[in-house]
Amino acid sequence: MVQNRSSFENMWNSRLVWRVAIALFVVILGVNAVFSAMSLSQFEKDRLYDLRELGLYSVIPALSDKIQSQKASPIDQRKGLRLVLTTPISGLKYYNLNKQDVGSNGQPLTLELSLSDALDSPAYYNREKNVYEVTYTPTDLGVSFYIVTQIDASRIHAELMNAIKIEIIIVLLLSTFVTLVLMIALSRWFLDPILALYYRLLRAAKNPENPPIPDKSLHTKTEIGRAIQAADILMSNNAESIKRIKAMAESEVNRLAFYDTLTGLPNRTFFIKTLKETLAAADENFLDRYAVFTMDIDHFKDINDTMGHSVGDEVLKAFADRLAETLPNQALLARSGEDEFAVMLPLNQGLDEGEERAEEIINAFRSEAINVMDEAFQVRCSIGVAISPDDADLPEEVLRCADIALNKAKSDGRDRVKRYDGTYVEDIQKRFQILRDLRVAMDLEELELYYQPQLDLKTGTLKGAEALIRWWRTGENGTGGHFVSPVDFIPVAEQSGLILPLGDWIMRESCKAAKSWSDAGLGDLTVAVNVSGHQFLQKDIVEKIERTIIETGIKPHQLEVEVTESVFMEDTDHSIKMLKGIQALGVAIAIDDFGTGYSSLSYLQRFPMDKLKIDRSFVRHLDEQHDNLVLTRTIIALCKTMNLKVVAEGVESKAEEQILIDEGCDYVQGFRYSAPIPNIKFQRLAKEYNGQLDYFD
Length: 697
Known about the structure:
Elements: H1 7-13, H2 15-59, H3 77-86, E1 89-96, E2 101-106, E3 123-126, E4 131-136, H4 138-141, E5 145-152, H5 154-206, H6 223-258, H7 268-282, E6 290-297, H8 300-307, H9 309-326, E7 332-335, E8 340-346, H10 352-367, E9 370-372, E10 375-377, E11 381-388, H11 395-411, E12 417-419, H12 422-443, E13 447-456, E14 462-474, E15 481-484, H13 486-496, H14 499-519, E16 526-530, H15 533-536, H16 541-552, E17 559-564, H17 567-570, H18 572-584, E18 588-594, H19 601-606, E19 611-614, H20 616-619, H21 626-641, E20 645-648, H22 654-663, E21 667-668, H23 679-688
Parallel strand pairs: 11-12, 14-16, 16-17, 17-18, 18-19, 19-20, 20-21
Antiparallel strand pairs: 1-2, 1-5, 3-4, 4-5, 6-8, 6-11, 7-8, 9-10, 13-14, 13-21, 14-15
């Protein structure tokens, strides 16, 4: 249907109207047909009666004046023949009072009289032959005879057929007229309102927020009128509800899109959007300057891991609240990551104002702990500061500069503020260059393992060696080169994830070296291999170590795994599980650089381990610095109570060696005995060494 059709067109194109109209037409036609059938039946009776009367009027004049007896015909043959020839009568048959046949004229008749007839004047209408046979009684004739007359009824048939045609035409016209009138009434009172309601609902469905303006002329007192009125009210209410819900939804979407659900602060998207708009407006006035801070909560992951994420969330909210209290009103504060926040601050008092505000934030957290769930948390943060337009013009570049400064603050020890400096970019570029060259070095097999001997202080025997990686970095033109310190490239490998394949290579090559020592007849010397925190957190670290032992053919006790204290702080349960798994293989575990990290007695008791290595910073000048001596003595005594072996790193003098012997240290390594050397030189040293520590004097 099309909305702009006329009412008449709608009526003719409505399936509903046509169905109702056809039903009505059939009903009206059926009713008229019944009445017509009754009317035609009466018409036929009337015509037959007229035909009977006509026959009677024709017979009476022909009766004989003098009838001799009951056996004689009441009409003589001459008059009877005249009746047949000149009137519609085609046959006559005469009966006396006893209903005995006394003569006939014309055509033979079908109707026969007898004394048993119940009717005194029977009649018979033969429609096939178009004849009507009727009996005239003595009463009708005025004589003592019955006369059965056959009358031509063809005229009645013709008249009946004509009447039927007329009746059919009248019935059809009447039915059509009544149906049409009913269709018009149905269209006016039913279809048009229904279509109006349909189009209203259709428009409302397409545009529910702006439904059609109600046509109150259709709000009649009829059921349909009241239904239209109710529909208009419903559409109007629905439009208002949709507008209200949409407004609420848009508000909620805007909140979810631009605000952090935990702290209620603007999120990173809103911060960058506002930063772009603010800096774009500031371009018109070169005197406008803005400081952008990016900050991290130091060691926030430790809070989540030890106290749970629910406590961590509360710490974040409290941290955000204190930030908001510390910053001036014109500052924009946003949460830009899990434990990351960003600040945009207009500078009204010079370039130093940005750093001063950042220091105020640092001091606000240093001066007072954050109290959450009856726990006091000494929360610290690191902040990177960049100034626009001094450091960068574009919003993305300003944020990048602030992030670079933040990374510098974290790498310098955290809990501090760093203002962006162009040299930081050089450091980043340097790290990228190291990473690129390190990948090439691994592909070209430019990396090599050196081995620093470890000796038993009690027996003087060579116990084994610690494997240390060395990288000879070839010059740009392929000639010359220099050693790159592990201090420079190991952190880059850890940050990039390259430490995983590098660590696997170190483990495999170290075990191959230990196997070569056994094959050379040097005995089951052990090789100590450093495993980084990234490697240790792998779920398959135990399987990798076991596979390497099997593939290289060494004995499990020839391998010693060294891990730093920081490894235990990442995932306590995982660490304990992995350490036990490694020990189950028969591999020894040593804690490297003890005293430089967390140095907690609790993990010494909880974690399975075999050895503890005292960091070189405590062993160096042991004979000169009393504090180092006290600390070393304490560590050795502690290890003895816990049945742990002690290895002292960085021994450089005989005096340091003697003190360690006196204190009961088990093993030593350091430049007094040998610098880290290639495998070939180590094997030569092992063969030449006489088992006496004086050999190195």
